[in-house]
Specification:
3 helices, mainly beta, disordered C terminus, five-stranded mixed sheet, disordered N terminus, 9 strands
Amino acid sequence: MTGNHRDKSISRRRAIAVTGGTVAAGGLAVAGYQSAFADTTTDAEATASATSTSSECMTLMTSVTEGPYYLDGALVRKDITEGKAGVPLTLRLTVVDATDGCTPVSGAAVEIWHCDAWGYYSGYTTANPGGSAPAESEEGDSANDNTYLRGYQVANANGVVKFETIFPGWYTPRTCHIHVKVHTGGEKEDGTYEGGKVNYTGQLFFADDIAEEIFTLEPYSKHTGSYTVLADDMVYDGGGASSGLLTLKAVHKKDPSKGYKGFLTLGVDPDAESTGAGSGGGGTPPSDAPTGTPPSDAPSDSAGPSASASSS
């Protein structure tokens, strides 16, 4: 990657934020990675294969900070792009009960949110992402400024959810990441998820080499500056999958602009409750940031267009 994005001379204090254990060799997550992206493999087959491969289970993932850009009332939908430009990313997350042999947590609501290709979050479009980036308004898309790149999905009988989104950009002083919460005990109401409790608050991370290659493409390349690698991030603790590091598979090995598929198993305790106040930071949002439920004209699953692929 070009020097515009990478500057290891700027060292950031790294907080030890996640303490989850490792996945046993040949265990659930590894088997899941191998089966998740076979075009002919169903959710049920992937889960069965992963479970039968090992009698051991990944340890409980420890919650970290929800960060400064959380908003209540995200919509239940698979496609969260709302037309935001970027490299397509399909996320497949599996929620399992780490206290009960990694049995699937059917009905768990998985919520994700992340920044766009230039580092802007919906609801916080005036927050400077650091470095040099065009204003969010210059993207020229039709996305709702309060709802883009946020959403819920409810896990099926195998604990699996899938999201269609774009590869996130970055903002100072963080590495590339996606925020995630796992909820249980609530229900879908008025297009969002209400009630219950949050069992896990975490973040999903991307290998440096893949992220840096993506950031050389349009529209990401219009945001220049000092990109924080994983080793210098204030939240990621180097624990691999148990700390939120995604396994990624390119849609086309020779053309990263075609997109990626990401997979991770989230080991949670369905009886626990997370406040979202875990270790780590993430910057300060503007004082006039919105709160509460999304506006009545917010796009739904049926209205949200698919992500548009970048060109190199």
